[in-house]
Amino acid sequence: ARATLATEPGPPTTDRNRLLAQLIKVVDDGNAIGAALAATAPSHVARGAEVVRALKTEAPNEPQTGLLVAEYHRLRGEWTEFDAAMQIAESGSDRERPPLRYLRAMERIERHRRREEGAQMMRDALKAYPKFVRAQAALVLMAPNPRAALRELEKLKAMNEDHYLVMLLQPTLAADHELARIENATGQGGGG
Questions:
Q1: What is the pTM of this model?
Q2: Cβ atoms < 10 Å from Cβ of 64
Q3: Which of 17, 171, 178, 181 could cross-link to 26 by cystine, CB 3.0-4.6 Å?
């Protein structure tokens, strides 16, 4: 996009090039947000690890502790530890509660590399728990293409319009959708 715009003197003159300029700005804004998250994430993860360590000492056999410990180890890709924590988490009375469904779906995706199975598990969780925002956010991130991601993002927005993914991805996906529309119209002789 930058190369295309670099060849045009002055401000963009076509719909396509104006959209490309907008898309570049959205990507630059997203990169700035990503850099900010990268700068702050390590301290959040460290604080979370402190909480997990404390809970493992204070209430090691509580299902809620197992759930948090499993999430911690999932994020780190430590699957043996994840398995042990999930045994504790699933020792509670409700093995179908949303956080357990989420962790099992993410395990299917990340550990077993079965994205479609994991996505279906998220959809099933949403049928059982229609306000399960975390499952819908995961479906946005695992969408196979921008158009599908935009559809999933609209569902997420209906659930929580202030979700960070809505704010971060909506402009990019909308611009991508519009660019594809313009390119299709141009390719069909519609012009831009």
A1: 0.72
A2: 13
A3: 171
Residues listed for the chain: 192
Residue 77, φ and ψ in degrees, nearest 5: 70, 25
Q: Work out whether the CA dihedral 57, 59, 61, 64 comes out positive or negative.
A: negative
Task: In whole angstroms, give the CA distance from residue 118 to residue 115.
Answer: 5
Q: Which two tokens stand for residue 37?
A: 């998250």
DSSP secondary structure code for residue 126 in this structure: H
Q: Cα(159)–Cα(102) distance, rounded to whole angstroms?
A: 17
Longest dimension (CA), the chain: 69
Nearest residue to 26 via CA among 140, 172, 176: 172
**Res 91: pLDDT:** 93
Looking at per-residue pLDDT, the higher value among 53 and 152 belongs to 152
